[in-house]
Amino acid sequence: MLSAKATCNSHGQDSSYFLGWEEYEKNPYHPVNNPNGMIQMGLAENQLSFDLLESWLNNNPDSSGFTAQSVSSFKELALFQDYHGLPAFKNALADFMSEIRDNKVTFNPNNLVLTAGATSANETLMFCVADPGDAFLIPTPYYPGFDRDLKWRTGAEIVPIHCSSSNGFRITQSALEDAYQQAQKQNLKVKGVLVTNPSNPLGTSLSLHELELLVSFISSKKLHLISDEIYSGTVFSSPGFISIMEVLKNKDLLNTDVAKQVHIVYSLSKDLGLPGFRIGAIYSNDDVVVSAATKMSSFGLISSQTQYLLSQILSDKKFTKNYLTENRKRLKQRHDMLEKALHKTGISCLKGNAGLFSWVDMRCLLSSQTFEGEMELWKKIVYDVGLNISPGSSCHCSEPGWFRVCFANMSKETLVLAMQRLSSFVDSSVKKTNHNHWRRHVNKSSRKSKSLPKWVFSLSFATTRSGKNSDR
Asked: Concatenated DSSP letters for 148-191?
C-alpha cells in the first residue's frame, strides 16, 4: 500500500558510513558520563572556532531580531516568505564567497538560489539538469552521502571516475575518458561531472591543471560541471584554493555558453560550522537553471530569522576576515596534531591542505589487501577500539585500506584519547603479528630439529624470543 520510493532500498543507508554512525549513537563517548564510549571520528563538523561566533553574538545581542529593541524586525521576519530570500542575506553571502576566494572573482546575488543546506542544493541541481536514468561522473573517492543526495529521489545514476593513490588520487584525462566510455557501455546518457573542491574525503584542493582539464572536458562533450565548494574556506595550507569561477574568468569564458554549463554549490555548514542552520546555495550563470532551482527551493526554504541573523554576521567584514584567518590557523594545528600522532604509530596520510579530516593509509594493518580485509579492520576499530571512522569502500575508493578520519568535531583532549586508543590497538596488532610470525618460525624449526637433543631446541627457542624483543 506504499509507494515504490518508500519501499525501495536505494537510499544508501546500509553503507558502512551510516552503519558506523548507528553504532556510535548506541554508545557515544562522554568524558565524564561514558569515558569508554565510542568517539565520533566520522562526522565532518567544524567546532574549532565556535567560540568566535559566540563572542560575536554576545557583542551583538540585537542581531537575532527577537529583542525588545527590534520588535518591528520580528514582525517583518515572521511574515516574510518570499522564496527568493532576503536581499540583505544574499548580498552578504555573495560577498563572503568572494572574500573566501581573496576577491579574485565576484558573485552576482541574482544568480544565487538559497537552499536548505548543500544536500538540498546538489539534489536540486540534479533535478534541473538530469532526467531519471541520466548519469553524472564523479571522481573517487567521494562523499558517501552522494549516493543518497544525487540518486535516491532524482533517479539519476553515478558513474565513478576511478582515481589512484599512485598520483595522489588526482583527476586525469584518461580517467575521465574511461568513465565516459564506461557510462556509454551501460547505455547511460552522461549529463555532467560533479567534483568536490576541496575534496571530501581526500582533504585536498583541486589543482589548476585538474580544473582546466575539467573545463575542457565538459566543453568538448557538452556536459554540465557541478563544483561543490562547501569546504572552500577550510584551506589551511598551500597550495591554495582555486574556484572554478576563477578558471572561467582567467580563460575569458564567463560570458560564454561554457559558463552556463558550470554550477557551484556552497554552504555555511563547514566554513562557519553551522550545519544545524541549513544554509546552502546554488550559484549558476544559466538563467533557466536559476529560475527552475528557485521554484524548487520552495520545498526547502531557509527561515527568515536565520537569514536575518547571518546577514548581520557576514556583513561585519572585520569579523569575517578575522574568523577566516583564525579558523584556518586552528584547522592546520588540529590537522598537524592528528597526523603527527598517526605517524608515531607508523600510519601515514595523503598530504592534505584543506577540510575537516585526513585521508589515512592503513593498508599496513590489513590482514589481506582486499575490501574484505578493510571491513575486518574497520569492524575492529569500531567495536574494539571504539572509534567511528569511515572506510574507503564507503567512499567508493578503488583501493582497500584507506580511511577518512575527522579531527575538527571534538576537543583536543578527546583527540588525544582517540589517538591513544588507536596506538594501543596498533601496538597489540604488531605484537600479535610478530608473535604469529615467531610461532611459524618455531614450528618450522621444530620440524627441522626433531632428531636433535631437546636442549638444542630450547636454546633455539630462547634465542628467537630474545631476538624479537630486541627488535622492538
From this structure: HHTTTTT--EEEEE---GGGTS---HHHHHHHHHHHHHTT--EE
